[in-house]
Every structure is written in C-alpha cells, then in structure tokens.
Amino acid sequence: MRDPEEVVRAYLDAVGALDLEALADTFADDVVMDLPYAPPGFPRRVEGKADVTAFFAGLPAMITPLRFHDYRLDVLADDPGSVLAQYASDARILTTDRPYRNSYIARFRVRGGAIAWFAEYFDPVTLVEALGGTVTMPGQEVSA
C-alpha cells in the first residue's frame, strides 16, 4: 500500500499531466473534493469517485496540462493520513490562449492508499482572468 505522501504526489503528477486514468487510481470510491474558492460556474463540492473523475475529465477541453511543479508535501504529525500540499501550475486556457499560472494549497486525507477527501485552495481571480474575465476593485472601474 502506498503511503499518503506517495498517493498525493501521484495525484499531482496525474492532474498536472491530465492523465485521467492515473488520476482515477488515486481516489477512494467515496472521495470528496472541496473547492472552497471556486468561482461561479465551478462546483464547490463534488462527491464520489465517478463524479470527481468526471469533473477532471472536462479539463482537457478547457486547459492544457497544468504541469504542476514546486511540490511541498508535509504529512501532519498528529494525523499521518493527512498531507498538506503546496504547488504551482503552468498551463494555458485553450479558448483564450492566455497563460494560467496559479499557486495552490491543498489538504488531503488518505485512507487505505487512496484519497478519501481533499480541499484545494487557489486564487480564483487568476482563473477568471485567464478565462477572459475581469475583476476590478470598487472605484477602479474603467469608463468607456
């Protein structure tokens, strides 16, 4: 059985390459994915291996491989099944041809050699802008 850090590394490698088969192999049947900072149009929670895998299956139509890099993985001392991960992406959005480079922090719970739960935190403004949207601070609006 793979240790939690190895499972999380396999997940990051699979998502980074958009290798959906390898990705599905990292999930428990009852996996839960939380995306607390997801912008409108993206789910904040997805439950079950089939639905989480289906979420990722939609990515290749939207984005180039994410090429995750600069992993920093820390197994929590008080919970050896939990891993805190920091990483970054370097991809392009296909519809806009804009770069998508973001930084992430995620927490994973690994049970029986598979991911049972994870929450990923990223800058949603970076994603919205890469998709062609804009975000402006009040008082900073540009007049036409």
TrEMBL record:
Domain of life: Bacteria
Domain SnoaL-like residue range list: 8-116
Pfam families, sorted: SnoaL_2 (PF12680)
Entry protein name: Nuclear transport factor 2 family protein
Organism, scientific name: Actinomycetospora rhizophila
InterPro entries: NTF2-like_dom_sf, SnoaL-like
